[in-house]
Design brief:
Shape of chain B: globular
Distance between the termini of chain B: 41 Å
Number of strands of chain B: 11
Largest sheet of chain B: 6 strands, mixed
Shape of chain A: globular
Largest sheet of chain A: 7 strands, mixed
Radius of gyration of chain B: 13 Å
Oligomer: heterodimer
Structural class of chain B: mainly beta
């Protein structure tokens, strides 16, 4: 059974802390994505990566950075967490070269910044 | 500006009826349109994909239509069951891109 896992289901951090959200996929997918999901705003793309060490900005990259040192792992970093980054964070992966580009999502991390 | 619109109001239907959800888009030329299901507190799960040159796609009790003239996709669940209750998201993929743009989703509630 294919799987995308995220390091935490729930996380509580304080304003100004550096936060790491980890995502691992076991499907040998080239593409990986980080989204945030907020009520009334839907899923919004933060960053994505087509390959190891490659990263591209999505629609809302401000305040975030990413790291992809290994194919199976994609990390989202909040350099200095702020309350407006309280959200549900979802990681996804997809194979490259497939016309369908369907994405496989992890269970999500609900981050609260106090 | 580009927009994907799904009905923000929940759709309430009786078990056994057909549920129809709508996805309208503006200023997109999607090569593919996808539908996902999302349960509370979980990540979305892929259901169906339809290409721009396809009018209709079926999978078990699910049917998707795609009208590029009307700029609309309809998602049908026939013989609906309470277990079908969830939020359904449509997502567009434009040709030459590999990132999806998601609608905000419509919640479906199926009553026994």
């Amino acid at each position: 059974d294919v799987k995308v896992t995220q390091s935490s289901r729930y996380l509580v951090k304080r304003t100004g802390e550096k936060v790491f959200l980890e995502c691992v996929q076991d499907m040998d997918h080239e593409n990986m994505f980080w989204y945030r999901q907020d009520p009334g705003l839907g899923l919004r793309l933060i960053y994505f990566s087509y390959d190891v060490k490659m990263k591209e900005k999505g629609d809302i990259p401000e305040g975030y950075s990413v790291s992809r040192e290994k194919k199976e792992r994609f990390s989202l970093i909040l350099e200095s967490a702020s309350t407006n980054q309280t959200s549900m964070y979802l990681c996804a992966s997809s194979p490259s070269g497939r016309a369908s580009y369907e994405q496989f999502f992890g269970p999500g991390t609900r981050l609260t910044v106090l | 500006s580009q927009k994907i619109e799904q009905n923000s109001e929940a759709l309430n239907i009786q078990e056994g009826k057909t549920a129809t959800l709508t996805c309208n888009y503006t200023n997109y030329s999607p090569a593919y349109l996808q539908w996902y299901r999302q349960d509370p507190g979980r990540g979305p799960v892929f259901l169906l994909l339809i290409r721009e040159n396809e009018k209709e796609k079926r999978k078990e009790r699910l049917k998707v239509t795609f009208d590029t003239t009307l700029k609309q996709s309809l998602f049908h669940i026939t013989a609906s069951q309470p277990a079908d209750s969830a939020t359904y998201l449509c997502a567009l993929l434009e040709g030459g891109y590999s990132t999806l743009t998601f609608g905000k989703g419509t919640m479906l509630l199926v009553s026994p």
